């Protein structure tokens, strides 16, 4: 039986545009796409994965083999038991049904997690420090910054020494160049004089 395929070489946001468009035409807005287009070897064969994030926050992971066959689809890290594996449009309709039927449950769980997180933050014990402790912390930080500053100054000094050496070498080379140019002019003048003498002879 033929299976739904996606171009293995184009597992990017742009490469998945046709799939994203199919979802959005059905009213399922894709808010974000995570498709690094990086292959991984699993059980002896290459696999690429792309994740579509819907507006509700639900994520759809699509896993594809090297021949482009879509072999696994996960909604919020749960494998979907797909029936329509041979027709892209029907498969997308099936996925949308899963997303919509799970949306209320997902949002409720998300709100519960946020509430629990906020509660934990509210219960977090406040850390109080005495003036003496704050002074010691500041003093310690000053020592660290001083050491760091001294280290940077040493690097600057070392680089300056190298720069000075290079500058001196450049000056020597320039002097030699000028000498060679002057010598070349002298030789050219001497050569012209010899030519004139030969022509006059």
Main attributes of the structure:
six-stranded antiparallel sheet; 201 residues; 3 helices; alpha+beta
Q: What features would you describe in this structure?
A:
This protein is of the alpha+beta class. The chain folds into 2 domains: 8-123, no CATH class; 131-189. The protein has helices at 17-25, 88-123, 131-200; strands at 30-34, 40-42, 45-54, 59-65, 70-75, 78-79. Strands 1, 2, 3, 4, 5 and 6 form a 6-stranded antiparallel β-sheet that branches. The longest helix is centred in the C-terminal third of the chain and has 70 residues, at 131-200. It is flat, with a radius of gyration of 36 Å.
- The percentage of residues in β strands lies in 15-25%
- As a percent range, the share of helical residues equals 55-70%
Q: Look at the structure and give the mean pLDDT.
A: 85
Low-confidence stretches: none
What's the layout of helices and strands?
Blueprint: H1 17-25, E1 30-34, E2 40-42, E3 45-54, E4 59-65, E5 70-75, E6 78-79, H2 88-123, H3 131-200
Antiparallel strand pairs: 1-3, 2-3, 3-4, 4-5, 5-6
Provide a compact summary of the structure.
The protein is an alpha+beta fold and 201 residues long.
């Amino acid at each position: 039986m033929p299976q739904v395929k996606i171009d293995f070489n184009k597992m990017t946001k742009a490469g998945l545009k046709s799939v994203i468009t199919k979802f959005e035409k059905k009213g399922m807005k894709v808010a974000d796409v995570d498709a690094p287009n990086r292959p991984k070897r699993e059980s002896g064969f290459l696999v690429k994965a792309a994740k579509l994030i819907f507006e509700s926050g639900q994520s759809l992971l699509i896993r594809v083999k090297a021949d482009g066959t879509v072999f696994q689809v996960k909604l919020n890290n749960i494998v979907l038991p797909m029936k329509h594996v041979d027709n892209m449009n029907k498969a997308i309709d099936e996925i949308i049904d899963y997303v919509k039927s799970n949306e209320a449950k997902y949002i409720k769980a998300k709100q519960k997690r946020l509430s629990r997180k906020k509660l934990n933050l509210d219960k977090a014990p406040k850390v109080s420090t005495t003036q003496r402790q704050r002074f010691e912390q500041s003093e310690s930080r000053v020592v660290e910054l001083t050491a760091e500053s001294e280290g940077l100054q040493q690097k600057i000094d070392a680089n300056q020494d190298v720069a000075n050496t290079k500058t001196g070498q450049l000056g020597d080379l320039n002097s030699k160049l000028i000498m060679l140019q002057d010598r070349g002019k002298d030789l050219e003048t001497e050569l012209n004089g010899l030519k004139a003498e030969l022509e006059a002879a």
